[in-house]
Amino acid sequence: MTPLRLSIGHEVLFDVAAFDAVAQANGFYAAEGVEVTDRQYPAGSGDAVQLLVSDTVDVALGVGMFATFAGVQKAPIDIVSSEWQGYSDIVYYVAADSPVRSLADVSGLRVATSRPGSSTDALCKALQAQLTATGRPPNECAVIGSPPDNFTAVATGQIEVGWTTPPFFYDELASGRIRQIGTGDDLDRYRGTTSRVNLANHAVIEEDTAGVQAFFRAYQRAIDWTYDNPEEAATIWSDAADVELTPALRDAVYDVYRQDRVTLRSIDGLDVNLDAAAEFGILEEPLSEADVRQRIVLDSVLPTS
Fold this sequence. Notes:
43% of the residues lie in helices and 19% in strands. With 305 residues, the chain is α/β, with parallel strands linked by helices.
């Protein structure tokens, strides 16, 4: 058995947590000769990169592009595959009685982000630019934190616009207590770009390419099974994540986390993301698209069929 230590983007969020849970429950890892010996759930993509840099984990799943760029500058980290396309999983909402109907209406309002340099921070700044380009005053960007922090901030009037992602507060959306006004895909700048990728320590790939290949065969099998068996997979995920699975939540996760967005072989919009990373001061030094592509190794790691 090949032992591998994993960093998983979140212990609850569907697109990474569900696939890992399905792989475990169905024995896909074991069938490929892989044993996951440790799982880490970092607080954010920057922490996930640090786990790789410190040799605490071998593979990191679901890492944001901006943190990936910074990580590539620091250490021998390879981009093994894409993980998520676009930003449809970032759902913006307001209080039910708000007059705001879409992201076009948020001029001058406070829009939440999780932390500086995060994907939500980049989206918020892109929203500012998009409003300005249409002749409207920009929104403000407010560093609030996680979805629970956002919900409290909206409920108390600290901010006008919060963000969430399944499964957080989808019962409140379904009941009408809060109201969706858009998603990250409404921001023109990042539409069609890869937002998260899967990474591996370069030394691990060099020393055991076959083991990393085996892991991703199992992981791809879990992705396929999740969409071929939606009810069973949702149950496996909700049990593992300790989430109450309602019909509304099950529909929401499959509506937001569509199968066509989870494609391991498509890394798109590197130029767009690199320009944003430089513009927002995420990179300490310039990084070219050629530099990044040298660290993309999907052809040598991912299954071909």
